[in-house]
Write a structure and sequence with these properties.
Structural class: mainly beta
Low-confidence stretches: 1-41
Strand order of the largest sheet: 2-3-4-7-16-9-10-11-12
Mean pLDDT: 90
Helix content: under 10%
Strand content: 25-35%
Largest sheet: 9 strands, antiparallel
Shape: globular
Distance between the termini: 61 Å
Number of strands: 41
Number of helices: 5
């Protein structure tokens, strides 16, 4: 337990008491470097009993008070999935998705004496509250905003960036009434205990038992404690517009008395307890990152991601068999039998975490098993030439090359732009309308490490559809940061200025998975005109995600649908989920759009993203937005990893493309606040053109539209 004393309690419905920490750590997680707790300055018996103790035990929507006083808190937006078991220590993982309402009676206003002990870990700087005493959500400097005392574990406020911010507020006339405690630094690595003590007119803040800030004030707690059933919150700010908390919290206690410095040290979890919980939680977070495309550590067939830092804790890796799995996670595909490997991570906290991995010997059949082709197609086919599982070399033959082309043995990549990943294969020539559908048999021949295998696929090539004059325009849009759903509008005939909402003004697509937000929808008509594709950003700012986390830890997916009538939309992947197109080191996947590439005979999907040094996302340099591109033929399978399309050293976002004659024209936004190389105006849109859609843009670079993108407008 992350506390100095353990209060026995009966199991609540649906709740299992935690196991003893030492037994769990030793028996389950194979952690070392965790010693015995050092004696406290004062014994646990000397510490007054808290008025409430939340060790993150829960039952349903109730956060349990384990002090025996029955002051349970109520969870909003948080579910069983919000809680993690860190070697027997429960952790509530706030992800800007919920909060806990604290009941009245924890602290009274009869005097100014109180204590709040709060054990937390976070790498997110934001205007979020870890806890607050008070009630009344409202704008700054208004009476709607309740009087309060709060603590933010890692602030984004000027003068407090990446530091603890704490303040007391009682509005007085035209003054907002907030007085902030002096900045005293940030959190320690791993879990940190922040204890605020109110004694008379003095607030004192401790970090892991050491005083870091003090404030003398003239305010009264009686003006702050609410009269209703809610005394305050965990994870919710009272300032309107602030995001919900993004942090891990393992233990919170309240007292209606002021603890002494000795009692503060005696009450809080010991350094070894916090180290153990940090290491146990770290293991799960590392595992979530390291798997990559693998289904489990017992079935490793592709490279692993071995992060250098997770949750602000540095990791140094070693491997029992570097030739099979390297310390950078590269997995050998040259082994002839399944091979066990032990990967060991030593953290900067002194703990050691081990992972037992089994690397599966490659088989050529696995690459053939991974191939999925549509039974009936109106599009060119994604005839993969490299196996998706083990990297086998694949070539294709066709029973009727006039319907679907085979792999071109003489294919050579272009000097500029992306290479055709299908090497000339899979190009479909559809029968004319009225001629009927036709079948073709395609055979995939795979070679890997001297092994050979092949697989046949029968595909029906659809005849061309009927054509009719265009009847009007349709549009898709989302409304605001608080209404991130897809709406549609249509015109009355071919008059572009007569748009009106459809579906009774209700959304046509609402996301219930991934981030649960849909933004930036873009509709593209297929190259043959009988189908439409729509792509959108997977992002929900209205769910409490701040713009900072949205760029550093945003979704790697795009949301994709298809339709034949612009009314009924279905997922291209047949699942109620987006499709991952970005790489683990990316920070976000914004404003995807698509355009047909005549040279590649594929659709190019492009989007804006930050790119970190690795999947741990710990570096803070070179984080400007840039544009990436992937190829697809069916909006179900996409090339990987994304290719760099626009990387000039300056932030660029929101490209859109159209083709006129021999040229592709591209509008893009300069996201810099000022000039960016030859771009003279910041936060402005500029125009370029090129004959090669996938030609990369970098500075310095040639400006010829034959092999680069030529800048046409500078302001």
């Amino acid at each position: 337990m992350m506390r100095s004393t353990r209060i026995p309690r009966a199991s609540a419905p649906g709740h299992t008491p935690r196991r003893a920490l030492a037994a769990t750590v030793a028996g389950v997680l194979a952690l070392t470097g965790v010693g015995l707790a050092a004696p406290n300055a004062a014994s646990a018996a000397d510490v007054p009993a808290p008025s409430a103790h939340y060790d993150m035990s829960h039952s349903g929507s109730t956060l349990l008070d384990v002090s025996g006083n029955g002051r349970n808190a109520t969870l909003t937006g948080l579910t069983d999935a919000s809680f993690a078991d860190a070697a027997g220590d429960a952790v509530l993982r706030f992800r800007a998705d919920g909060y806990a309402s604290l009941p009245s009676g924890l602290i009274t206003g009869s005097d100014n004496n109180f204590t709040v002990e709060y054990t937390v870990s976070t790498q997110t700087s934001a205007n979020h509250f870890g806890w607050v005493i008070g009630d009344g959500v409202g704008p700054w400097n208004t009476t709607q905003l309740g009087n309060h005392i709060f603590l933010s574990p890692r602030s984004a406020q000027g003068g407090y960036t990446d530091q603890v911010l704490a303040a007391i507020r009682v509005k007085n006339g035209n003054s907002n009434g907030e007085t902030r405690m002096p900045a005293g630094g940030g959190l320690n690595p791993g879990f940190t205990t922040l204890t605020m003590v109110g004694s008379g007119n003095t607030l004192t803040l401790y970090r892991d038992g050491q005083q870091i800030s003090t404030l003398t004030h003239s305010l009264s707690l009686s003006s702050i404690i609410p009269t209703g059933a809610v005394m305050g919150y965990l994870g919710r700010s009272l300032y309107q517009g602030d995001p919900l908390l993004r942090a891990d919290v393992s233990d919170v206690k309240f007292w209606d008395v002021a603890l002494t410095s000795g009692e503060v040290s005696a009450s809080m979890p010991t350094a070894e307890q916090k180290k153990a919980t940090t290491a146990a939680l770290l293991r799960g977070d590392v595992l979530a990152q390291m798997l990559g495309a693998n289904s489990a550590l017992t079935n490793v067939t592709s490279n692993l991601t071995l992060p250098a830092t997770v949750n602000g804790v540095g990791l140094t890796w070693s491997s029992s068999a570097p030739s099979v799995v390297s310390t950078s996670g590269v997995v050998s595909r040259a082994i002839s039998s399944d091979t066990p490997v032990t990967l060991t991570a030593v953290s900067t906290l002194g703990s050691t975490i081990t992972f037992d991995v089994t690397v599966i010997a490659p088989t050529v059949s696995a690459d053939l098993d991974a191939i999925v082709l549509a039974n009936r197609t109106t599009e060119n086919l994604p005839l993969a030439t490299t196996g998706a599982v083990n990297g086998a070399a694949i070539t294709w033959t066709s029973s009727d090359p006039s319907l679907v082309t085979a792999t071109d043995a003489g294919y050579t990549a272009p000097a500029v732009g992306l290479a055709d990943p299908y090497r000339g294969g899979g190009i479909v020539t559809r029968p004319a309308y009225g001629a009927g559908d036709r079948e073709v048999t395609l055979t995939a021949h795979a070679v890997l490490n001297g092994m050979h295998d092949e697989r046949t696929f029968t595909v029906t090539v659809a005849e061309h559809g009927r054509t009719a004059p265009d009847a009007g325009y349709a549009a898709a849009y989302f409304k605001s940061d608080s209404d991130e759903k897809i709406y549609q509008a249509a015109t009355s005939g071919n008059d572009f200025f007569t748009f009106s909402p459809v579906n009774g003004g209700n959304p046509v697509i609402t996301s219930t998975t991934d981030t649960k937000g849909l933004r930036d929808p873009y509709i593209l008509r297929s190259k043959d005109g009988d189908k439409y594709y729509m792509v959108a950003t997977d992002l929900c700012i209205g769910c409490g995600t701040g713009w900072g986390p949205a760029q550093s830890a945003g979704s790697l997916k795009i949301e994709v649908w298809e339709s034949t009538d612009l009314v009924n939309w279905k997922r291209t992947n047949g699942e109620d989920s987006g499709i991952t197109v970005n790489q683990p080191a990316a920070g976000m996947t914004w404003a995807p759009e698509a355009y047909w590439d005549d040279a590649l005979q594929s659709y190019v999907v492009f989007f804006a993203s930050r790119l970190y040094s690795d999947a741990s996302h710990t570096n803070n340099d070179n984080l400007y937005a840039r544009m990436f591109a992937v190829l697809t033929r069916d909006f179900r399978t996409f090339t990987a990893p994304p290719a760099s399309w626009q990387d000039t050293g300056y932030a660029r976002i929101d490209s859109t493309v159209t083709k006129i004659g021999d040229y592709y024209y591209r509008f893009t936004k300069n996201e810099e606040g000022g000039a960016a190389g030859p771009l003279e105006a910041g936060k402005d849109i500029f125009l370029e053109r090129s004959k090669v859609l996938t030609a990369p843009t970098r500075y310095p670079a040639g400006r010829r539209p034959v092999d680069h993108w030529q800048l046409l407008e500078r302001t």
